[in-house]
Amino acid sequence: xxxxxxxxxxxxxxxxxxxxxxxxxxxxxxxxxxxxxxxxxxxxxxxxxxxxxxxxxxxxxxxxxxxxxxxxxxxxxxxxxxxxxxxxxxxxxxxxxxxxxxxxxxxxxxxxxxxxxxxxxxxxxxxxxxxxxxxxxxxxxxxxxxxxxxxxxxxxxxxxxxxxxxxxxxxxxxxxxxxxxxxxxxxxxxxxxxxxxxxxxxxxxxxxxxxxxxxxxxxxxxxxxxxxxxxxxxxxxxxxxxxxxxxxxxxxxxxxxxxxxxxxxxxxxxxxxxxxxxxxxx
Length: 282
Ligand code: SAM
What we know:
This protein is of the alpha/beta class. The chain has helices at 58-70, 88-93, 109-118, 138-143, 169-178, 195-211, 247-252, 262-268, 273-280, and strands at residues 3-10, 13-27, 32-38, 42-47, 50-54, 78-83, 101-105, 131-134, 149-155, 179-188, 214-221, 229-236.
C-alpha cells in the first residue's frame, strides 16, 4: 500500500509526497510533531500537518534567511533567532567566526529534541559554545530586550497557532527595540501566490513597514512550501540590503553554499510585478 503525506495549500489545492515510513509522531503542549522519510525529499518535519523542512530543500530557506542579512551587517556579534527549533538557521550562523553569541528562543522543547534525533543534519550545532537555547514564547522574550542584538532572525511557523504572536505589530515593535542602533531583522514572510496567503503576507508587511524605517522583501524558490515561491522580509534601522551589501568581504569568507551567492543576493530583491503591486497596496 502506498503512503502519502498531503498538505492542503488552499481549499482546492493539495500537495503530496510519497512516504516510505513515518519515523516519529507525537504531541507537545503546543502542536503535533511528525517526521517522515521519503524517496524524493529525504526526511521531513511537519508541525500540525504543515511542512517545516525537508532534507532536500532546507538549504535554500536556511541559507537565504541567514546569509542575506549577514552579508549586509558590517559587524554582527550578537544574534537572536526566534523559532527555528530545527536548528537550520543556527547551523548557518555558527559558520561565522565573528558572531560571539547566538540566542535561540523556541517555544517548543520537543521540536528541538525530535530534530536532534531525526534531523541531525540541521540540528547539528546546538552544542556550539556560542549558542544558548531558551524555551519561551518569542513574543514575551523580546518584550524584555533593549538594544541588545545586531540581528534578529524570525524563523517562525505560519501566522496561526503558537506562531500567531510573531506576526503582530507589538512583536515587530519590540524587535525594533531589541535591536542595536544599526540592527537588522529578517523574517519568513510567507508567500504571495495564493489569495489567503497574500492577504496574511500584506498584513504582516504593513506592520513591519510601520515599525522600521527601512523595509524590503526578497524571494526564493522553495519547492515544498505552498506555491514554491517564498518571501522573506528584510527590515533595518540603518542598512539597505543592496546598497550596503559587502560582497567582497562575504566572498572572502570562502563559504561553500548551495543556493546563496552575492549575485543572487541582489537578484532576490527584484520581485515579480504582482508581488510589487501587493506590497505597494499596504
Ligand atoms: N522554516 C519553517 C517554516 O516556515 O515552515 C519554520 C521552521 S521552525 C521549525 C518554526 C518554529 O517556530 C517551530 O519549531 C515552532 O515551535 C516555533 N514557534 C512557533 N511559535 C513560536 C513562538 N511564539 N515563540 C517561539 N517559537 C515559536
